[in-house]
Amino acid sequence: MSEPMIPLSIAVLTISDTRNEETDRSGQALVERLTAAGHVLHEKRIVPDDVYRIRAVVAGWIADPETQVILTTGGTGFTGRDSTPEAVSVLLDKQIEGFGELFRHLSWQEIGSSTVQSRCLGGLANATVVFCLPGSTGACRTAWDGILAEQLDSRHKPCNFANLVIPERGQHV
Question: Is the separation of the CB atoms in 138 and 107 below 8 Å?
Fold first, then answer.
């Protein structure tokens, strides 16, 4: 990779009724990985698992031209308050169908059949790429290391999501 990587502006949202900045290991793992890869943390927040509060934060970031990528962690399971897919899917212009499939394939090797309980998703909205990840730190590492590190790297061939959100690349329309 002889060309330089173009850093992306990435927002991280932890969705949890119990975590705070001191106990949010999943959000912190994402921040550590994205900054180690050369990207810029745009903002990090924690909100309770509430459809409307999640939707408000994600919609605000989608509308913000400075935010190129949104990573959420938490709320993708099947318990009573898990509502991230319901909150975010209606905001997406296009869903990335293969993201959840690939994540569950990678996760299968780590947690077996329990991976079917992950309702993680990805999509595009207003020239912003959005990935909703499970709340476990291991799942966040799996998603970043196995998918996102390459797909958010502007040098990755034959294609990547970075080039869809970098305006000067001309592919974001």
Answer: no
